[in-house]
Each structure stands twice: as structure tokens, then as C-alpha cells.
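Hi R.,

As promised on Friday, here is the backbone we talked about, encoded as C-alpha cells. Could you run it through your design pipeline when you get a chance and send me back a sequence?
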């Protein structure tokens, strides 16, 4: 009698504490991409591009956790004086990275086709994180190679950045962030 009870208790403990075969496998995400900002001044428009964006993340039973980041020094507007001034404005020496972090509960990787995902993103620039929704477009043919595209607006003053001026006229507060990344999903 004691032997049968012991077997039942052990069986219950194994079922409760053993990893479930039905639980989702962790998938690691890694990739690279480009990101650019579009800045508007009354007299001209500026586009600066970084080709050094890194993407890392995981998808598991809890959902998606992903981060994309680029060094602020890698943004090129094809004007070295302007780029040096932007490094000063965003204090690139003190805050060398701009990053976007997303957590999306219940997210499952698409196996094929195109899909749009809405998520709350934490955008950190100049040492200040601001959270707001963004939309990400995902496209894949095999569920392993995924292309992600995004575009959203960001406020310079929300990140405590003093807007640069030219001829005593400050740039617009709102900048557009546009990017794409090629990501590989590996178990």
C-alpha cells in the first residue's frame, strides 16, 4: 500500500514539475538591418541612415521579446558637420546607442506569408525611454528567414533632446524612424 502511494505521489510530482512536451520551444532571433531617421527643417529635409542595426530576441511560450539597436555614431546623413552636431545634441559619447525593445505576450512566429503586428515599444534615445505603439510588418516564406519592416514617429523633446537649429529656426520636434531587418529564427 505504501509502495503504490509512493509511486502515485512521484508520478504526480513528475507531471507537475517536469517540462511539458506541449510547451512551446524557445526560438532565438538574430539579424541585422538598416534604420534611418527623417528630420525636417523649414529649409530642408534630412535623412540619416545606419547600416549597423543589430536585432536579438526570443519567442517562447510567453511570447516575443526582442531588441533592435544601433550606435548613434553610425548614422550618416552625407554631411559630416551635421552628423557631428547631431552626435553633440544626442550626447552620443554618453549615450552611444539608440534601442527599441518590444515584448508581445502570446506572439507566435508566422510560418509563411505576410502579417502586421502591433506592439508597445520602448524607444530609448539620449538615455530616455519612451513607450508607444508601433506597427511591424513581417514577411517570411519558410518561418526561418523573416524580414521585418517598421516606421513610426518619435519626439525629440520627449527624449529630452534640445532641437537643433539652423538660422535660428529649430528642426521639427517629430522625426520619422524607418527601418528593415533580416532576421533568422533558430531553435
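Update: got your reply. Pasting your designed sequence below so it's all in one thread:
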Amino acid at each position: 500500500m505504501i509502495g503504490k502511494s509512493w509511486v502515485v505521489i512521484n508520478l504526480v510530482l513528475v507531471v507537475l514539475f517536469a517540462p511539458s512536451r506541449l510547451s512551446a520551444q524557445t526560438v532565438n532571433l538574430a539579424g541585422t538591418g538598416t534604420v534611418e531617421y527623417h528630420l525636417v527643417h523649414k529649409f530642408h529635409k534630412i535623412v540619416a541612415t545606419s547600416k549597423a542595426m543589430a536585432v536579438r530576441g526570443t519567442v517562447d511560450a510567453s511570447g516575443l521579446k526582442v531588441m533592435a539597436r544601433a550606435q548613434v555614431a553610425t548614422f550618416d546623413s552625407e554631411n559630416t558637420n551635421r552628423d557631428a552636431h547631431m552626435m553633440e545634441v544626442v550626447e552620443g559619447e554618453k549615450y552611444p546607442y539608440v534601442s527599441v525593445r518590444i515584448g508581445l505576450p502570446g506572439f507566435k512566429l508566422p510560418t509563411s506569408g505576410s502579417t502586421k503586428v502591433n506592439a508597445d515599444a520602448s524607444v530609448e534615445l539620449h538615455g530616455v525611454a519612451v513607450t508607444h505603439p508601433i506597427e511591424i510588418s513581417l514577411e517570411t516564406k519558410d518561418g526561418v528567414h523573416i524580414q521585418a519592416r517598421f516606421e513610426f514617429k518619435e519626439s525629440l523633446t520627449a527624449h529630452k533632446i534640445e532641437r537643433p537649429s539652423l538660422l535660428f529656426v529649430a528642426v521639427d520636434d517629430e522625426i520619422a524612424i524607418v527601418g528593415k531587418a533580416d532576421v533568422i529564427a533558430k531553435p
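One thing I noticed while checking it: Confidence is low (pLDDT under 50) at residues 6-23.

Thanks again,
M.
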